[in-house]
Every structure is written in structure tokens, then in C-alpha cells.
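Thread title: Can someone regenerate the structure for this chain?

I was given the following input by a collaborator and told the matching C-alpha cells would be attached. They weren't. Posting the sequence so someone can regenerate them.
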Amino acid sequence: MGIFSRLSKFGLGNLSEKEIIEDKKPEKVVREPKPEKSPEEIEKEIVFEKKIKCPVCDLMFPVLKFRPGKVKLIGSDTDLRPKYENADPLKYDAVVCLNCGYAGLSRYFDKITTRQIKDIKEQIYSNFKGIDHPDFIYSYDDAIARYELALASSVVKQARNSERAYTALKYAWILRGKRESIGADKSRIDEIKDLYMQELEGLQVAYDGFTLALAKETAPIAGMDGDTIVYILADLARRLKKYDDASRLLGNLIVKPGINQRLKDKALDVKALIVEEKKKINAKDD
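Best answer:
Regenerated them for you:
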């Protein structure tokens, strides 16, 4: 007899064998793994559109901006190019007015004089044929075009050497970013070589510009102190195979009293790279 055995009078005798309390382990629920988001999908989530006013033509125009702090910094190249996980915020730093074609890095875009506005209107606005405005993200090609326009504007408005140099440096970084995104695709080897040569061209402009800026401008230069500029110059010289110049700049930096230890360590690392690169060159010559 059991509690349920008396249910037959209610017509529920079929429940007489049921246990009231069961020590039953819950069945494991197999969850389907969430599909990983592609870098492009991640980038779309952290990019937003913003309208800003052009200081040249006074019209409002849309730009894509990168939400700060939304991607993880994973390191930097020896010339201080920052590298991030899944996306490249550098693609969003060159701003181009869709109406008149005036362009510049974010830090310089609004810093323009009446004389410079006149030059931009005469030499750029009057000839500008427009540029596409992507809906979601900037591709590397979109970014390269924007940086080239920023460089053009810096020349037309006769910007300080530091602005031209910094724009050229970031332009070279964008070219490097595209080259790295291609990877080791042998079918695109000619494109990879071309990107590398364009990068070197940008680095040369940056090297020349920062050299002049260091001699004629007062720090901070492009937001950096003098020691940092010297360090960047040294690494640019290394990348351009100007090893004597690179070694001289590094030597002066390493022995400078009061230099930041972190920067000194980076300088020592670049010095070691120069030794290794020269060994490889000598080995080839032998």
C-alpha cells in the first residue's frame, strides 16, 4: 500500500507506482557554441557616425568615429605604431569633409587660419570631386584615401613640419596595417611589395619632417616630448637603412641624463636590431 494506491477511487490507479520524491539528476543541456564574430562584425559594433562642421566650407558632414576603450591594445611596433586586437582605430583618425575635400588628422582638423582656408578653397575645394562615405566601417583603402587627402591639405595650407610629419607617419602605419591584413597571400605579392614601398615613402617624409620640426619647433611636437621624437627618428632611420644616423640618434638618447627608463629600454632594443640587420647585410655580401 502507498499513498497513491488510494487514488484508484478517483480513477487514477495508474499513478500508484509513481514515486513522490525522486533523486533525479537533471539532464545536461547541450548548448550550441555561439559563433565567433568576425573582426569586421566586431568593428561595426564599436564604430559610430558623428556629424561635424567643416571649418573651411561651414557645412555639417558625417564621419565614422571609433569608440575609445572598446578594443584591447596588444602591443606596438618599434616606431610606436599601436596595435589592437580585432580592429585598427588608426583608420578613423583622418577626417575628410565630404563637401569641400579639406582633410586632416583629428588633432589638427579645426586648427586652421583664415589664410589657410583661402588656400584650401582655391586649390582643393575648387577641384574636389567627392569621396565615398561608407555606411559602417572604413576599409584600409578608405583610410588610405583619407590620409592621402590629409597629407594634401597639410601641404596646401603650408602646415608646420610636425603636422606634415605626423600625418605621413600615421599614413605609413595605415599602409603597414593593410599589408599585414593581407598576410602571406602569394597571389598578392606585387600588392604587398607596392604597399611596402609606399610605406617607406611615408616614413621618409615623416623622417624629414620630424628632423626639421625638432630643429625649429618647441616641444611638445605632435603631442610628444623631444626624447620621444628622437627615438622615433632613430627607428625611422633604421627602417630606411640609414644605420649611421640611427646609431647616432640612439647613442645620444641612451646616454642622456634623466631619460625615461622605458624609452631608454626601447632605444636599446632598436640598437640591438640594427646590429642584427647589419650582420645579415654583411652575410649576404660575403
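The longest strand covers residues 47-53.
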